């Protein structure tokens, strides 16, 4: 890569307005706790990403004012979702904003719902991605994608949503086959996903938010 600083990656993290985020968690969290869980996921994801030695900056694309303020306090750069055309348009917008200032930037899209994310594991994924023009990491279910990376001059070309693993592979992106990076694969959409993330050990904000779930839901929170 052209840049020699070890902190070379700009991560693009998209986040829906909190009132609409994580609708599939409603059965376990209800509509009152669900937005606060989505925000906690994003805060723990961004905090862990910023602690990764390979990450230069985290750019959050969101129109949610509360989320924007909270993530900016952690050190993220926050951009409004100017396209307003969904997830992939937001990611392309974020990547374009980064490369408008640094055309040689290495960029990666990262899910906002990785509350168990470990900086060292993210570093392993980004180190592997540095050897490819475009590459991706499949989610824990083996259907979706949690990270899509592009080194300059390759465009990011996001195709997230549903079976994005197959779409990213079909687009020519290299699949990163790595062991020991479970925290980067563990996105959270459902109650079962949340239980799996808690078992890995989540960040402090998610742990605190999860403790507010009723005991009958069977959740236990462990800060990672």
Structural class: alpha/beta
What radius of gyration results from the CA coordinates? 16 Å
- Our estimate of the beta-strand percent is 15-25%
Please, how many helices?
A: 8
Which regions contain 5 or more consecutive residues with pLDDT less than 50? none
Mean pLDDT: 92
Going across the biggest sheet, name each strand in turn: 3-2-1-4-6-5-7
**First and last CA, distance:** 32 Å
Quaternary assembly: single chain
Order of helices and strands: EHEHEHEHEEHEHHH
Helix/strand layout:
Elements: E1 9-15, H1 26-50, E2 55-62, H2 65-74, E3 77-79, H3 87-101, E4 106-110, H4 119-129, E5 134-138, E6 145-150, H5 164-170, E7 174-175, H6 182-185, H7 191-200, H8 204-210
Parallel strand pairs: 1-2, 1-4, 2-3, 5-7
Antiparallel strand pairs: 4-6, 5-6
Helix pairs in contact: 1-2, 1-8
Can you offer a commentary on this structure?
The protein is an alpha/beta fold. 40% of the residues lie in helices and 16% in strands. The longest helix is centred in the first third of the chain and has 25 residues, at 26-50. It is globular, with a radius of gyration of 16 Å. The two termini are 32 Å apart. The relative contact order is 0.18.
Describe this structure in a few short sentences:
With 224 residues, this protein is of the alpha/beta class.
Which properties best describe this structure?
224 residues; alpha/beta; 7-stranded mixed beta sheet; 8 helices; 7 strands; 40% helix; 16% strand; globular
């Amino acid at each position: 890569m052209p840049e020699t600083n070890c902190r070379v990656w700009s991560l693009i993290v998209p986040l829906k307005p909190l009132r609409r985020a994580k609708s599939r968690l409603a059965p376990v969290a209800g509509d009152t706790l669900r937005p606060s869980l989505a925000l906690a996921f994003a805060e723990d994801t961004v905090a862990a990403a910023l602690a990764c030695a390979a990450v230069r900056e985290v750019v959050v694309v969101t129109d949610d004012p509360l989320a924007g303020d909270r993530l900016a306090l952690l050190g993220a750069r926050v951009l409004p979702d100017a396209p307003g055309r969904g997830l992939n348009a937001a990611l392309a917008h974020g990547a374009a904003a980064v490369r408008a200032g640094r055309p040689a930037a290495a960029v990666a899209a990262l899910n906002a719902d990785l509350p168990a994310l470990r900086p060292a594991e993210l570093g392993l994924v980004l180190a592997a991605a540095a050897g490819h023009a475009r590459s991706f990491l499949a989610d824990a279910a083996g259907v979706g994608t949690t990270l899509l990376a592009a080194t300059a001059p390759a465009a990011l070309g996001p195709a997230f949503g549903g079976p994005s693993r197959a779409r990213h592979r079909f687009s020519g992106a290299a699949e990163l086959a790595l062991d020991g990076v479970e925290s980067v694969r563990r996105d959270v959409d459902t109650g079962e996903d949340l239980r799996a993330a808690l078992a890995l050990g989540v960040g402090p904000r998610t742990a605190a938010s999860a403790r507010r779930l009723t005991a009958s839901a069977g959740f236990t929170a462990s800060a990672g």
